[in-house]
Write a structure and sequence with these properties.
Layout (H helix, E strand, L loop, with lengths): L31 E3 L50 H4 L19 H8 L35 H19 L9 H9 L3 E2 L13 E9 L12 H15 L3 E6 L3 H14 E11 L1 E5 L9 E6 L3 H8 L13 E3 H11 L5 E8 L23 E7 L10 H12 L5 H9 L7 E6 L48 H19 L9 H10 L2 E2 L14 E9 L11 H16 L3 E6 L3 H14 E10 L2 E5 L9 E6 L22 E3 H11 L5 E7 L29 E5 L8 E5 L2 E4 H12 L5 H12 L6 E4 L12
Parallel strand pairs: 2-4, 3-4, 3-5, 5-9, 9-10, 12-14, 13-14, 13-15, 15-19, 19-20
Antiparallel strand pairs: 1-21, 6-7, 7-8, 10-11, 16-17, 17-18, 20-23, 21-22
């Protein structure tokens, strides 16, 4: 489905009575625990954990706090549960929820039957995420692997797609000298992404798609002329004939390329082919600082040329400039999605592109391990401006036409014969079995994408000439909306049932479930019903670090309950994830940023710390870091190259900053609340600062972000007992203030907390636009 669709809003689940409703007692400080990392972390050391015994409550809160109050679990016991490896048994090999392997999708009818069956969500450590213990266990649900749409729903989607495709195929008055070629692409049924938005594309399931990013650099000194356009036309004809859905974008900026790639990875179900044609080069890898290590970059249309015309200014993410994007950025875009059942084929046809994303190690370049299901084809050529050789594209098309089931091995063998001097082709695969699989799938008739020649029966007798516009936002039909309500009711009812959690906090998690908060640990993204609109959503990531030496025990769990009570009471949808790993947090934040419409509140409770800044942008030389759960029991031998800024237990704020700005949904307000140490400038959206803050502000009008840090960067955040409840000082006081002042603004919160918690810590507000700080915190 196409995310962010405008439909009647599915209301949040009704709040139930909370055990904290009447706790208005004056703060009574009985104990305090500093939210900082224990001695298992290199950067910060805390005192010995008193051999598992809690010290006497201090008369005055300590900035470091007492150590954990309970002993560590005995050897062999599950860190987050009570069952040992012998009791739970060795986990089964990872089983893809769709019931198929990448490139071997089987029949649609069989896949849909598999999707209706319940699944075991938890799989243990994987190549994506090795921070999970193999002994861990998540209570299963009776939810289907995916809610399957009815034929009536699909028919409605096909009608909207037909109207959209018909409009996009009509002759368009393109400026520039490539008007006829672009009109030819449109007439083939290829969708020009430059002319549409993500919200406009109808929510018809996309099974097989190819996207052609070709760059002629029109009007720039390094133009390549018509070569890339002709390549795109030849490829579009090939994939239309093979029943793929075809998208294209000529002369995109790096940000446009990344934004659409992100959307396509999220929305294409079975196979996505991404083709890049243009300039490429190499630069020194700044991460390793080794002159022998090089990073490959792709060159796009210079963003400044477009922005001068529109008056906009974009904030660059790491790995993006006004005209280039590094291969690491695309690698990370794929990993964060974690859809191994989708085969992704990345093709680059440019200078110095043979090792972009590749697992091969050539010419002293670093080794990159491709994610499962990913294939990379790099065609390297020494071209010259205005004279791009089409040897790769013509050879690729010829190979597929002459041998329909040609494999990647076949392609390399064929193109390597008689190859010209200074030309090279490299193929890397995320799994050896992929190299022998067909490059282009022979699409079954019921999986085939609707082509422009097939839409007439779906237009209700209207001629294409009569279609003069399409809605700015795709609006699902009444049939789809009613189905979504039914599926959502089934989905939420199942997750409200008491689950047999194997945790010392089981009763707290059951309480959250019964309140209507959705535990993301028990579901996959694919299980969430389609065609729902998450208008307002609060995502609660709280970390007791259960069973680990640096546990915070019940404090973060109580923080989660306090925040769930608050936001459910204001009719938000609430989701939560206790003791998330870094990869789980990043993956779900990516999905939430893509799918929440009006407001997303992200709340983090746990440890925070600082590490040496690798970006060169931090004034004090330190980057802020969120600390997550890490079982420290890595059993899998395969591990893909990690996302930049993410380790087995931490996520850097610069990594989250880049994720947020890459989405570019300015109509969505994003509120990031962190109750942890050193969180003042967490996420790097710094503008208004306290005296001991620091400046590092982006300048952008295309995002709408407010950050609330519980403690400035050089402070620790405290956890105390207040009103008989152990919780974060910030979270408790924030939730109580919201009860008495429901329309409180961010600035009013800052002023109020100066009086209440300044002897412990100082909160810091940052934002993409200082005007946001005068808005109410909770809508």
């Amino acid at each position: 489905m196409s995310p962010r669709q405008s439909v009647p809003i599915i209301p949040a689940i009704a709040e139930v009575d909370s055990p904290f409703e009447k706790e208005q007692d004056k703060v009574s400080v009985q104990s305090v625990r500093s939210r900082r990392r224990s001695s298992i972390f290199e950067e910060i050391i805390v005192p010995d954990p008193s051999h598992g015994h809690a010290p006497e409550p201090p008369k005055k809160p300590s900035p470091r706090g007492p150590s954990p109050r309970g002993p560590s679990p005995p050897h062999g016991q599950s860190p987050r549960g009570t069952l040992s490896r012998q009791t739970r048994g060795k986990p089964q090999p990872r089983q893809l929820f769709m019931g198929h392997e990448p490139g071997n999708h089987g029949k649609r009818q069989d896949r849909k039957q598999n999707q209706k069956k319940p699944i075991e969500v938890f799989q243990g450590a994987t190549a994506y995420d090795q921070s999970v213990d193999d002994d861990d266990w998540v209570p299963p649900t009776n939810l289907p692997a995916q809610f399957v749409e009815t034929e009536a729903e699909i028919q409605e989607q096909k009608k909207r797609w037909a109207t959209f495709a018909a409009f996009m195929s009509k002759p368009f008055e393109y400026p520039g000298k490539f008007k006829k070629q672009l009109q030819e692409l449109d007439a083939l049924g290829a969708i020009n992404l430059k002319r549409t938005t993500r919200e406009q594309i109808p929510g018809l399931e996309i099974n097989y798609a190819v996207v052609l990013f070709f760059n002629v650099y029109e009007g720039l000194p390094h133009t390549l002329g018509a070569g890339p356009v002709n390549d795109a036309i030849n490829l579009a004809k090939l994939f239309v004939d093979k029943k793929y859905r075809v998208f294209y974008f000529m002369d995109s900026t790096p940000a446009e390329y990344l934004r659409w790639t992100d959307w396509l990875i999220e929305n294409v179900e079975l196979e996505l082919v991404s083709y890049f044609s243009g300039h490429g080069t190499q630069i020194e890898d700044k991460k390793t600082k080794d002159k022998n290590d090089m990073t490959e970059i792709l060159a796009f249309y210079n963003a400044n040329s477009k922005l001068k015309k529109s008056g906009q200014k974009l904030t660059a993410a790491q790995g993006l400039t006004d005209e280039t994007i590094s291969d690491d950025v695309i690698h990370d875009a794929i990993i964060k999605k974690e859809y191994p059942q989708t085969r992704i084929i990345l093709i680059t046809d440019s200078i110095r592109s043979s090792n972009v994303f590749s697992a091969a190690s050539i010419k002293g370049l670093k080794i990159k391990t491709l994610p499962p299901g990913v294939v990379y084809i790099g065609a390297d050529q020494e071209g010259s401006p205005g004279n791009k050789d089409t040897w790769f594209t013509s050879g690729f098309v010829s190979q597929i036409k002459s041998k329909a089931k040609a494999s990647f091995d076949d392609l390399k063998t064929s193109l390597s014969k008689g190859i010209k001097k200074n030309y090279e082709i490299q193929i890397g695969v995320g799994g050896s079995e992929l190299s022998k699989s067909p490059i282009v799938v022979q699409v079954e008739s019921d999986d085939a994408e609707i082509q422009i020649t097939e839409i007439a029966p779906l237009l209700g007798g209207k001629p294409i000439s009569s279609i003069t516009s399409v809605p700015p936002v795709d609006i699902p039909s009444k049939v789809e909306v009613e189905a979504a309500k039914k599926n959502w009711a089934e989905f939420t009812a199942e997750l409200k049932k008491a689950a047999p959690y194997e945790s010392e906090y089981a009763s707290s998690y059951q309480k959250l479930d019964s309140m209507g908060a959705i535990n993301l640990e028990r579901i996959t993204r694919e299980q969430i019903p389609s065609n729902i609109e998450l208008d307002k959503c609060a995502a609660l990531f709280f970390n007791p670090y259960e069973g680990l030496p640096h546990t915070l025990e019940l404090g973060p769990v109580n923080d989660g309950i306090l925040m769930a009570e608050l936001f459910l009471g204001r009719k938000y949808n609430v989701v939560y994830l206790p003791d998330a790993t870094p990869h789980e947090y990043y993956k779900w934040m990516d999905w939430l940023l893509e799918n929440v419409e009006t407001e997303l509140v992200s709340f983090f409770s746990g440890h925070g710390t600082q590490i040496a800044d690798k970006t060169g942008k931090e004034v004090d030389g330190l980057s802020e870091v969120l600390v997550f759960y890490n079982a420290k029991k890595k059993k899998t031998t395969e591990k893909i190259t990690a996302i930049k800024g993410i380790t087995d237990e931490t996520v850097e704020d610069s990594t989250m900053h880049d994720l947020i700005i890459s989405k570019d949904y300015p109509q969505t307000r994003i509120v990031l609340i962190t109750d942890c140490c050193h969180s003042g400038t967490m996420f790097n959206f710094d503008q208004p600062l306290p005296a001991n803050g620091k400046v590092n502000a982006p300048d952008t009008k295309r995002i709408n972000v407010v950050c609330v840090g519980a403690a400035v960067d050089n402070q620790t955040a405290k956890q105390v007992v207040q009103g008989g409840l152990e919780s974060g000082i910030f979270t408790y006081n924030f939730s109580q203030l919201e009860k008495t002042t429901p329309k409180m603004t961010f600035k009013e919160l800052e002023d109020a907390l100066k009086k209440k918690i300044e002897k412990y810590q100082t909160i810091q507000l940052t934002a993409s636009d200082a005007k946001n700080l005068t808005q109410p915190i909770v809508v």
